[in-house]
Amino acid sequence: MTDNQSKDAIKLLKKIIKTPSFSKKEENVVKILESWFKENGINYKRHLNNLWAENKYFNKKKPTILLNSHHDTVQPNKSYTIDPFYPIEKDGKIFGLGSNDAGGALVSLLYLFKSIYLSQKMNYNFIIACTAEEEIAGANGIKSILEKLPKIDFAIIGEPTLMKLSIAERGLIVFDAKIKGKPGHAAHENKDNAIEKLPEIINWFNQLKFDRVSKLLGPVKTTVTQINAGFQHNVIPSEVDIVVDVRINELYDINEINDFFVKQCPCQIKARSLNLGPSFISPNHKIIKSANLLGIESYGSPTLSDQALLDFPSVKIGPGNSKRSHSADEYIYVDELLDGIEVYKNLLNKII
Questions:
Q1: What is the pTM of this model?
Q2: What's the pLDDT at 349?
Q3: For the chain, what are the domain ranges?
């Protein structure tokens, strides 16, 4: 990139940071992205708070690669020591909410797309999609535009991975479980106390072991994350509500895991949704071979992304570090942002 292009990329990231873009409230950051497309002469489309654009010489006879990242953020946590919406550039870092997750990846992919927008001699078409509600896996994010896009053969999802290539990603089921008992006055004996059943049931979840262990993602992981019961100190509640977080490796189908819990769980249990399945891409895919030639490390990701909503092959890669995501005083290194653009280009140059 030239110095001016680098400055423009940094400037765009700072504009994004300055603009609150919580999930379902991304309207203002979308205006910034619309302006960027217009300033760069790129024709785009919009649905709700999602924007996308095709390369200028799109050819329906060619396969299509989707470049995608999200522009929504979580709420800033209470441990921030700086203004989360005031982008500070210091010690080679850009601080601010969404800088790392996933503003850096979004800006890098936008400048990658800009560099190939007018190319005519490519083996692939490209679509850039800047999407909403990723942080909540919302219905009005990428899921809402997939049917509006041309057939996608493969996707690159921009998330902070230190520019390592995530070739597998855990799926997620959140279960609501209920332990039933007999309500009564705390002063009287109760042999069917729902709360007293809790240790045995938590132990059942903790001791669960699924046979198939992934080399990339490890075993299926089950964690009780919430417990709620009672409304008054002298009343034994009739039930205890618990929430169970289950992270699924790529060796299991999400429906298979759900069926197991419904049939085997020692209390009532129901999945909130079955939309967030695990993902995995064949090691023989062209993008994997391209990454290998460049010495890019591959790994399995424990964190969830919009990959879970896609029904075509995809990888996850981007500048920044996932461990900084949702943290206080979030930041991305300037060099990570700029190097990310170049790594994306080199990765695609091997196949286009």
A1: 0.91
A2: 86
A3: 3-169+278-349, 171-271
